[in-house]
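wait is this the right file?? whatever heres the structure
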């Protein structure tokens, strides 16, 4: 087979490569950064986190190229994705993938590539991810209002994806503060991250009631979409992480009254939100077990078991850091064990689906009801 024919065949296989694939990059990167954030450091963990970080960085690079080819060769399908209310929210995953890999590069990859290179890579990815996230946070709701046709009862946890992206920026931006010039630059960065935190939090508070009302009035989600219930953990764990990291960055960046207030706010906000996150985790887990019993098979939605749980790991670790409570330390360790298990299962199943070609195949059309047949009687 000629080189041009091989290239054309590869490009054709990418026709149905949607923005939801960025969730796999996010879910991989959070395994590395959450492991680095744990209050305990068992032997071998650092090396494992470095390997996972390298995998996430490679996956991001490959996916960025693949998505560029998708837009160049299959622009009609890409525009169709933007017009589909079930797919368009996943464009928020692109921003979070950039941010997650950037954050993991600084927290984990710095020991591999060096501090200067890690800071530069994180700064570039943070800016790119933040700009992309702001575009998604404003653009996807705009499309939902003006272009998408959403029926009653179609509210979905995936609606959270675009508006959570700024919260990821707020959680990962503080790591760059010590590398900025003292004074105005650091203060501006901290306050900008608080602004991103508020933007995402208030948007989340608008969407969550609609999601819960949909569950109450219309029953469980379809089986393949049930893992998306774990997405609700994302803004909860990430906001707890954000206020904890911002409390650390505020010292020396903000004037005394505000810097002193940041740490108490981190605990007084984070503790109740983490409590609600654990409540939602129990509800979502029960719904997933129910879906398993009814025959739920693997789908890319299983990556929802990874990144949101990872944000709860970093949130619990931040609370442990600020309170010194051993219970929070063990909570973060337990959640990390859950994260690692979920990631391993999702990664293996995704690799198998890629090799078999099933995950890149065209979606199967919904079955049509058979036409009714009239029987004549005499």
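ok assuming it is, sequence goes like this
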């Amino acid at each position: 087979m000629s080189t041009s024919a091989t290239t054309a065949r590869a490009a054709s296989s990418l026709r149905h490569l949607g923005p939801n694939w960025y969730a796999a990059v996010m879910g991989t990167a959070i395994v590395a950064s959450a492991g680095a954030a744990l209050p305990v450091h068992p032997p071998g963990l650092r090396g494992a986190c470095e390997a996972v970080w390298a995998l996430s960085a490679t996956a991001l690079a490959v996916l960025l190229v693949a998505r560029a080819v998708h837009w160049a060769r299959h622009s009609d399908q890409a525009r169709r994705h933007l017009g589909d209310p079930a797919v368009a929210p996943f464009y928020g995953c692109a921003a979070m993938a950039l941010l997650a890999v950037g954050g993991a590069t600084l927290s984990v990859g710095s020991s591999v590539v060096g501090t200067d290179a890690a800071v530069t890579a994180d700064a570039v990815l943070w800016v790119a991810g933040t700009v992309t996230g702001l575009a998604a946070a404003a653009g996807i709701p705009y499309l939902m209002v003006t272009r998408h046709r959403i029926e009653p009862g179609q509210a979905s946890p995936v609606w959270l994806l675009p508006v959570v992206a700024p919260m990821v920026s707020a959680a990962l931006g503080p790591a760059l503060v010590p590398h900025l010039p003292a004074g105005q630059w650091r203060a501006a960065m901290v306050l900008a991250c608080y602004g991103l935190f508020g933007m995402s939090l208030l948007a989340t508070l608008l969407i969550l009631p609609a999601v819960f009302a949909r569950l109450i009035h219309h029953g469980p989600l379809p089986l393949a979409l049930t893992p998306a219930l774990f997405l609700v953990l994302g803004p909860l764990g990430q906001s707890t992480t954000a206020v904890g990291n911002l409390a650390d960055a505020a010292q020396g960046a903000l004037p005394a009254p505000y810097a002193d207030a940041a740490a108490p706010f981190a605990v007084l906000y984070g503790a109740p939100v983490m409590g609600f996150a654990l409540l939602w985790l129990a509800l979502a887990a029960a719904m997933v077990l129910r879906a398993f019993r009814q025959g739920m098979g693997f789908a890319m939605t299983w990556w929802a078991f990874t990144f949101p749980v990872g944000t709860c790991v970093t949130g619990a670790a931040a609370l442990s850091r600020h309170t010194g409570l051993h219970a929070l330390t063990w909570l973060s360790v337990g959640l990390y064990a859950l994260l690692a298990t979920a990631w391993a299962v999702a990664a293996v199943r995704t690799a198998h689906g890629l090799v078999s070609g099933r995950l890149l195949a065209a979606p199967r059309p919904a079955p049509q009801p058979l036409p009714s047949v009239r029987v004549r009687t005499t």
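Residues 109 and 246 are 22 Å apart (CA to CA). so i think its the right one actually
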